[in-house]
């Protein structure tokens, strides 16, 4: 793991957005289309605000979420909603977004078709992940009902997940789908997450699921 510390959150957002844009541009020199994985939650919004203005061929970029809450896109908890508002704007409006949530069905029923649609988009050229203070990343939650499957090296790309105290059923990319990304970044803010990150480094992924992707990750942190 590589830890990059910033003087403040604004600097983190600008620098990280530039890095992601540079990596996407480089990947587009080799491949006709490239995939970008992005997180939901409260942290990445300001990174998206900077990234969406990047001057690159967004029409050749496929965007997928690291995980989604099984709620309609107009629900405040929807990660797709965050993306549409903060990332798929400005120049990045031209990107192709592949949402996970399918109205009027269950994750269980939707997963086979989602998995089939996702397979040609993987591995991602660039992945940005978040992390919770409970050491989850994507929706790989400690004590998640499908955590064992999601951590398996032979896991499907997408796994349904429920966990104690976690609102909404989730669908999440599995650890191997995330870790296979050609470049993997993580964005975290605050002392509590820094402390959680340090704890996770000494724990197995079954207790600290974020540990399953840390070897490959550049972690961007600001107070
Ligand atoms: O539930 C989620 O949490 C993590 C971390 O979110 P944050 O609000 O603490 O930044 C996020 O990375 C994930 O995509 C999201 O669904």
TrEMBL record:
EC number: 3.1.1.31
Superkingdom of origin organism: Bacteria
UniProt keyword annotations, A-Z: Hydrolase
Major enzyme class: hydrolase
Protein name, as recorded: 6-phosphogluconolactonase
Organism: Lutimaribacter degradans
Biological classification of the source: Bacteria, Pseudomonadati, Pseudomonadota, Alphaproteobacteria, Rhodobacterales
């Amino acid at each position: 793991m590589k830890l990059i510390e910033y003087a403040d959150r604004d600097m983190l957002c600008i620098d990280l957005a530039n890095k992601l844009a540079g990596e996407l541009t480089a990947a587009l020199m080799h491949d006709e289309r490239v995939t970008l994985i992005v997180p939901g939650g409260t942290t990445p919004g300001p990174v998206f605000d900077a990234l969406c203005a990047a001057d690159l061929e967004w029409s050749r970029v496929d965007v997928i979420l690291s995980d989604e809450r099984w709620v309609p896109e107009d629900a405040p908890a929807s990660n797709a909603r965050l993306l549409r508002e903060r990332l798929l704007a400005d120049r990045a409006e031209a990107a192709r977004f592949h949402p996970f949530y399918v109205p009027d069905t269950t994750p269980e029923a939707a997963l086979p078709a989602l998995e089939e649609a996702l397979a040609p988009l993987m591995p991602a050229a660039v992945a940005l992940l978040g992390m919770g203070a409970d050491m989850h990343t994507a929706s790989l939650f400690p004590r998640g009902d499908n955590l064992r499957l999601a951590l398996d090296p032979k896991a499907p790309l997408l796994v349904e997940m429920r966990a104690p105290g976690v609102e909404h059923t989730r669908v999440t990319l599995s650890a191997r789908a995330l870790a296979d990304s050609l470049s993997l970044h993580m964005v975290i803010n605050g002392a509590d997450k820094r402390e959680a990150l340090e704890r996770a480094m000494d724990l197995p992924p079954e207790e600290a699921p974020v540990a399953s992707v840390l070897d490959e990750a550049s972690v961007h942190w600001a107070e």
